[in-house]
Amino acid sequence: MKNEEAPLRIGLIGFGCVGQGFYDVVQQRPELGLVITRIAVKSPDKPRTLPADRFSFQADDLAADPALDVLVEVIDDAAEAFRLVSAALRRGRRVATANKAMLARHLPELVQLQADFGGTLLYEAAVCGSIPIIRTLDQYFSHEPLRAVSGIFNGSSNYVLTRMAEDGSDYGSALAEAQAQGFAETDPALDMGAFDPRSKAVILAAHAYGVFLNPNEVLNLGIEGIAAADIARAAALGQKIKVVAGLYRLPNGRVTAVVTPQLLGPESPLYAVEREFNGVVLEAEFAGPQFLHGRGAGGHPTGSAVLADVLALRRGLRYGYAKRATAPAVQLTEDLVLDAYVRHPDVGVLREVLTWLELDPEALRTDAHGTYATGAVALEQLQAWRAELRQLGVFVARTGEVRPAAVPADASAAARAALV
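The structure assignment produced for this chain is given below.
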């Protein structure tokens, strides 16, 4: 059925992968009554798929243009994105963004700007590409307690891990393939170092639990130090290594967040999430477990999420942040531990690392794939030494859930609750 409303006039800021994807999707759905009337880009010299006269180079002009009904911001500069989006919200504008780093750093300010000036900001495309996780949390689970929200939030690192498992290849060659396929950036640090999924976990925390987290305080460990030996050792146990971002409600009612590689078995729905796909597991108090799976990256999947936000803005949708009024306390690292697998090819370096992490040297193990260590490690120690671990290429993965330090790894659920 054809849309009888007046066309919605859109100003698009950015025409990279997501911007082009959104443009393509809109062009293929003329019945929706959307018109991209202005496009602002940074560089006048970059080759593009549209004629040069379709572009302008002053994004501020779009934010100030009263003829535009909605602004879509999809640039990769977090600081510039915040400047443009905050300026638009101060004008009471309706805005959709896909910039997860900007949102993670500035979400409290952006929420306040909406309240002060009456604008609206939606950002489904910022987390997990085509998966509608933000609206699911904000609307469907707005008043239901959640035990956990966890998942694979980064398709680039997941692609690398999949290819290493399929071919037995090393990290460098798998990363090069991901870059050649367009699944990883030329500078892969944000993805492979787990900074990108950390930003997404911080955004989800506002909707799942009503808490605003400082991303710098959330532990994130990446896969830069991973080797074929780690993949093979996991496979020998019937497991896979995945980068899992998790928000967890602790037995004491507080909320924690952590992003690390994790060994997973077939019982986890994340075990089968491969290549550039993402997956999110919700554990709701009353509704039980839920699993969402879809493409986490790419122009058209992410452009589809932007389109959903634009249509929602036309309908007047706003995020509710219903859980802010009853937000729990946060416990990010203090008095928390995780069961860890630690490896470095140099045994001398590995022994030194064990002292940093306060692990007994007796934790060292040797098998056909080399030497490694396992044991319970305090999150505070991992947080304190994470820069050095990354610099040295130490690979750390969790082998179990995050738990209070006073709770033994093998304690039953009832016993755990009694100990905290």
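Interim note for the steering committee: The mean pLDDT is 94. The domain at 8-122 is CATH 3.40.50.720 (Rossmann fold).
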